[in-house]
């Protein structure tokens, strides 16, 4: 039986940053259901927020709260904003490069931000950050990285987590013991037919939380991104970052008219697009890049430009068809400010967790930051924990032969997640009607 000090489930920004922030004497395992770079963190385009200076604090706080419909946990928002400069320092220390001019950061803007406070690396900020974190993790002798390894269950008793059960690519299951388990499994886009997320990121940890009575929060708070490239083919939807609208692109209806303020919060813009599509009887609206200078399109958005062109729409020449799609999960496994779940020795970080930063709706470019801030807090809390509960009976706590039919287990988890979202939606609608 394998044994680690810390098991981290997920190799996105949250999982990797947690691993790198733990002391080097900890023996750490990081697993990923897919390839190590098969995570949404690699797909992030727009950027990552940073508090520029004290003068921007109140505005940044207010923008985050307003986007979240004031349902955010105030303490979490304060922690995130106050930690942002340290986190960017850490990232630069790991080799991450952000756009600079004369040695100074260049800041861009996205919807619902009242100031330019977003750092970026072309339109592949997530790839820049996550590939550097992965490279650093691969260099560390105390971190073992295991791809194509799926967590199928937790090994727990009396509300204490002692490890996980994993399945490899051949479906062989093993129990792995850990003093602490950190869930960094991303969102739940895989349960939606149209999503910007990888298909395998499908809320598995949420299903396990339901199964083992770990507290969840706001499972119906699912963000729909207003602008993904319209396509009638199945598969992951390609995102057209909000920073394209932040830099001036406008939305147009069938008649070529502008129909909404493009820089309102995402939920508001998505609603306006759906209403326009219904009115026009169309399957998409149009995004007009022409207000953005040609050089800006080519230099700031080279990948978005290339992808649109590949689909037959040259943003320098023509409008691009766009449609909203599932994008982000604001709810998740309830955690406190140190990313602890309601089960002992079990933490959750990144999109899987709900620390309340985003409230009802996430402000653009806050999620990479939130993932990093609270992953580091989890690491510090683990490092400062003097002793962990252990069990002499680990092998008898779970029967690893009970997971042979992996596809139906996963299908069952998906159904549980979808059911929970629907249940919460119905309950909230009833409450709001009263
Ligand atoms: C297209 C796109 C663009 C975005 N742009 C931005 C942006 O500009 N700025 C911003 O702040 N945010 C952006 N986001 C959101 C942001 O990228 C994510 O919220 C963030 O990266 C989540 O990181 P994470 O580490 O929590 O999860 P992920 O990066 O999604 O990683 C999840 C990991 O968990 C693993 N996993 C899942 N289930 C299991 C299981 N059962 N067993 C084992 N492993 C499992 C996966 O394989 C993966 O390794 C964007 C998201 C998308 C999809």
UniProtKB/TrEMBL annotation:
The reaction(s) this protein catalyses: L-aspartate + O2 = iminosuccinate + H2O2
Tell me the pathway. Cofactor biosynthesis; NAD(+) biosynthesis; iminoaspartate from L-aspartate (oxidase route): step 1/1
User: Which NCBIfam families does the annotation name?
Assistant: PRK06175.1
| Taxonomic classification | Bacteria, Bacillati, Bacillota, Clostridia, Lachnospirales
Enzyme type, top EC level: oxidoreductase
Family from the record:
Belongs to the FAD-dependent oxidoreductase 2 family. NadB subfamily.
PANTHER family associated with the record: L-ASPARTATE OXIDASE, L-ASPARTATE OXIDASE, CHLOROPLASTIC
Give one GO molecular function term.
L-aspartate oxidase activity
Q: What is a single Pfam family found in this protein's UniProt entry?
A: FAD_binding_2
Cofactor(s) recorded in Swiss-Prot or TrEMBL: FAD
Q: What is its EC number?
A: 1.4.3.16
Superkingdom, natural source: Bacteria
What processes in GO biological process is this protein linked to? Answer: 'de novo' NAD+ biosynthetic process from L-aspartate
Question: Where does the FAD-dependent oxidoreductase 2 FAD-binding domain start and stop, copy by copy?
Answer: 5-368
Per UniProt, the keywords (alphabetical) are: FAD, Flavoprotein, Oxidoreductase, Pyridine nucleotide biosynthesis
The answer to whether the entry has keyword 4Fe-4S is no
What is the protein name given in its UniProt record? Answer: L-aspartate oxidase
Oxidoreductase listed as a keyword:
yes
């Amino acid at each position: 039986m394998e044994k680690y000090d810390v098991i981290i489930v997920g190799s996105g920004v949250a999982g990797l940053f947690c691993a790198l922030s733990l002391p080097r004497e900890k023996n750490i395992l990081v697993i990923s259901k897919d390839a190590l770079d098969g995570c949404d963190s690699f797909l992030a385009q727009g950027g990552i927020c940073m508090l520029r200076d004290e003068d921007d604090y109140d505005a940044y706080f207010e923008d985050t709260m307003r986007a979240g419909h004031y349902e955010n946990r105030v303490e979490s928002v304060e922690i995130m904003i106050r930690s942002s400069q340290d986190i960017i320092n850490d990232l630069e220390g790991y080799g991450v490069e952000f756009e600079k001019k004369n040695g100074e950061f260049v800041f861009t803007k996205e919807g619902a931000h009242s100031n330019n406070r977003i750092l970026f690396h072309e339109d592949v900020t997530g790839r820049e950050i996550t590939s550097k974190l992965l490279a650093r993790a691969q260099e560390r002798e105390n971190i073992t990285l295991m791809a194509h390894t799926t967590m199928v269950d937790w090994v727990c008793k009396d509300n204490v987590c002692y490890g996980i059960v994993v399945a490899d690519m051949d479906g062989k299951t093993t129990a792995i013991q850990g003093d602490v388990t950190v869930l960094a499994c991303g969102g739940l886009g895989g349960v939606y037919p149209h999503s910007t997320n990888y298909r395998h990121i499908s809320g598995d940890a949420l299903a396990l939380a339901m199964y083992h009575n770990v507290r969840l929060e706001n499972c119906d708070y699912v963000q729909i991104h207003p602008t993904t490239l319209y396509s009638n083919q199945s598969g992951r939807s390609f995102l057209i970052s909000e920073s394209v609208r932040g830099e001036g692109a406008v939305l147009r209806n069938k008649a070529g008219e502008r129909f909404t303020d493009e820089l309102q919060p995402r939920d508001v813009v998505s609603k306006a697009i759906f209403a326009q599509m219904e009115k026009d009887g169309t399957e998409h609206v149009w995004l007009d890049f022409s207000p953005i200078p040609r050089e800006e399109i080519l230099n700031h958005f080279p990948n978005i430009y290339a992808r649109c062109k590949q689909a037959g729409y040259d943003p320098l020449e023509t409008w691009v068809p766009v449609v909203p799609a599932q994008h982000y999960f604001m709810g998740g496994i309830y955690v406190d400010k140190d990313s602890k779940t309601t089960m002992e020795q079990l933490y959750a970080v990144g999109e899987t967790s709900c620390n309340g930063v985003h409230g009802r709706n996430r402000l653009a470019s806050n999620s990479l930051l939130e993932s990093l801030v609270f992953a580091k807090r989890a690491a510090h809390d683990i490092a400062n924990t003097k002793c962990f509960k252990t069990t002499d009976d680990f092998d008898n706590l779970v029967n690893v032969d009970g997971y042979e039919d992996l596809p139906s287990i996963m299908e069952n988890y998906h159904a549980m997640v979808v059911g929970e979202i629907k249940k919460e939606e119905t309950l909230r609608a009833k409450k709001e009607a009263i």
